[in-house]
Amino acid sequence: MQTEALKTLVMDTLEELKARDVAELDVASLTSVTDTMIVASGTSSRHIGALAESVVEKVKESGCRPLGVEGHQGSDWVLVDLGDLVVHVMLPETRQLYDLERLWSDLPSDGVSVEGALGEVRG
User: Fold this and answer.
1) What letter would DSSP give residue 75?
2) Range in 37-41, 70-74, 100-104, 117-121 with the lowest mean pLDDT
3) Residue 13 belongs to what H/E stretch?
4) Whole-model pTM?
């Protein structure tokens, strides 16, 4: 499945189950791990689990296989790895604490990847 179609499927699924504050982050120039991150909030741990489970189910129905799912029912953060697209579903408090939107926007965008920047720091 093409990345744009996968992104649309994920966004529609999150919207259908009333995810809150859905944000799309283009990180293709910042890391080789993924191209896009979608961050969404749920209202409770149960809601987060349902959102992530529904994303996985819809993706599988479309013929794709998630590379992995981290977190589980009762978690305050579930990550669904779809390769070129990574979905983060979090409680609002957890989202505020980790502030992924700010973290990824603060990275240098002058062609230096996260891996390159980390290498320079470690070197």
Assistant:
1) -
2) 117-121
3) helix 3-16
4) 0.82
